[in-house]
Amino acid sequence: MEKAKRYLVFLVGLFISSLGVSLITKANLGTSPISAIPYVLSLNFPLTLGQFTIAFSLLLILLQLLILRKNFKLEHLLQIPISVAFGYFIDMTMGLLTFVAPQSYPAKVLYLLIGCVVLAFGVYLEVLGDVAMLPGESFVRAIVMTWKTDFGTTKVCFDVSMTVIAVVLSFLLAGQLAGVREGTLIAALLVGFIARLFGRALYFMPGLLFGAAAKQAEPAETPGGYVIAIGRQYGAGGRVIGKQLAEKLGYAFYDEEILQMAAGTTGYTPQFVSRQEESMGNSLLYDLVNQMYAYAPEQESPKDAVFEAEKKTILELAQKGNCVLVGRCADWLLRKDPHCLRV
């Protein structure tokens, strides 16, 4: 029953994704990066966007076979019917949206943004269903598995490559840039980000649909003693004060020890974990790479993996009680613990 629900959710997500792609395309400001090549080809040849999407998806599946070789599993062949369905869904929604033909630039931007939200929700449902990946994401996964690259970075490189190839094809076939515009860049920046927002806002959906444990673990009461959680900025002296306080009370003291313990559960080195937590980049490229993990149901971004590992470590230490915890959001994570003094 759960499997049937997952396929149904995935199928609904696939249709909604096709609706999002069609809305973005109808906005006439370019299309999403993964659809850029099929769209440019559809503008220059008799076949439709959906038909070229199917052909391009089959090419990506063939490339996966060449990359993975003996690691290519029978379950990967499920991408074939998914690709066919997605292509037909795109043509169907393009037909349903014949009335969408914005003329003014603000109207085009509005339809583009609506399309991004719709596509992001479709991506969220596909990941929620967790039964298969579309060929584009599966191709990226094949590269990651074979050459041990980072999924987020590889996905960004893949999207950029698809866009560049589409631009080249446009100039070769039409002698001008057509089918790739600012909307392509906007879709690349927004869709993954919005999909992650859906995942956070609808965290209860797996439990509601599949009976899985979806609720975030709430901090349990501390049975063994008390916890003092100190939140501080670097240079504020929180570590020094926390250490002196722990010595006077005879409590255990945890600061960098949390980092060491968390690193053991992530597979990352302590040095890598330290860089992740102390240098949470806020650049556009960093955010773009991080949001690409919205397309990978079985993979978590390094930033999220580090946070979850440190969260688990902090909750376990709080269970033991009689300790001082410094930084790493411990004061927030233990906000509902009646035996925790938050400073």
Short account of what is shown:
The protein is mostly helical and 343 residues long.
Key structural traits:
343 residues, mainly alpha, 4% strand
Main beta-sheet annotation:
4 strands, parallel
Integer-rounded radius of gyration: 24 Å
Structural class: mainly alpha
Question: How many domains in all?
Answer: 2
Identify the quaternary structure here: single chain
Overall geometry comes to: elongated
Task: Tell me about this structure.
By secondary structure, the chain is mainly alpha-helical. The chain folds into 2 domains: 2-210, no CATH class; 227-342, no CATH class. Helix content is 66%, strand content 4%. It has 15 helices and 4 strands. The protein has helices at 2-26, 33-44, 49-68, 79-96, 105-129, 135-147, 151-174, 182-201, 205-210, 238-249, 256-266, 270-278, 284-291, 302-320, 330-333, and strands at 227-230, 252-254, 323-326, 340-342. It has a 4-stranded parallel beta sheet with strand order 2-3-1-4, sandwiched between helices. Helix 5 (105-129) crosses helix 8 (182-201). The chain is elongated. Residues 213-220 have low confidence and may be disordered.
Topology summary:
Layout: H1 2-26, H2 33-44, H3 49-68, H4 79-96, H5 105-129, H6 135-147, H7 151-174, H8 182-201, H9 205-210, E1 227-230, H10 238-249, E2 252-254, H11 256-266, H12 270-278, H13 284-291, H14 302-320, E3 323-326, H15 330-333, E4 340-342
Parallel strand pairs: 1-3, 1-4, 2-3
Helix pairs in contact: 1-4, 1-5, 2-3, 2-7, 3-4, 3-6, 5-8, 6-7, 7-13, 11-12, 11-14
